[in-house]
Amino acid sequence: MADQQPPPKSETFVFRGESLEKILDRIRELLDEGNVRQVILKNSKGETIASFPLTAGVAAGVVGLAVAPILAAIAAIAALVTEMSITVEKRA
Questions:
Q1: What angle is formed at CA 13 by the lines to CA 40 and CA 19, rounded to 5 degrees?
Q2: Other CB atoms closer than 10 Å to residue 31's CB: what's the count?
Q3: How would residue 31 be classed by pLDDT, with cut points 50, 70 and 90?
Q4: How many Å apart are CA 89 and CA 40, to the nearest integer?
Q5: HEC profile for 27-70?
Q6: Are 9 and 87 in contact (CB under 8 A)?
Q7: Quick count: other Cβ atoms within 10 Å of Cβ 10?
Q8: 3-class SS at 83?
Q9: Residue 53 and residue 40: Cα distance in Å, rounded?
Q10: How far is CA 84 from CA 43, 65, 66, in A?
Q11: Global confidence as pTM
Q12: 7 versus 88: which is more confidently predicted?
């Protein structure tokens, strides 16, 4: 019987009118931890706006390059909505 992996942990952060820089800084902090599997953006109604799966093998030194397009997409979405939540799924 194969070992089963535990389900991913998740954290949700709600942003209401925060600056774009504050949102991106928080996401960068989370990504720097290195155990993020997926980033999910939801609107104020709880509907998923976007979901970004992250590669499990991204090395810490390459994180900036690997996630730059994701941060750009999050910035574009955050500029259009006044309230959103970001759920971060982490490897256990």
A1: 100
A2: 21
A3: confident
A4: 8
A5: HHHHHHCCCEEEEEEEECCCCEEEEEECCCCCCHHHHHHHHHHH
A6: no
A7: 12
A8: strand
A9: 8
A10: 5, 25, 24
A11: 0.76
A12: 88
Q: Which two tokens stand for residue 57?
A: 């093998």
Find out whether 38 and 52 touch, Cβ atoms under 8 Å.
yes
What is the identity of the amino acid at 58? V
Longest Cα pair distance anywhere in the chain, in angstroms? 49
Rounded Cα distance between 48 and 83, Å, is 13
- Amino acid identity, position 67: V
pLDDT in tens, 32-57: 877 888 899 999 899 999 998 876 54
**Structure token digits, residue 35:** 């155990």
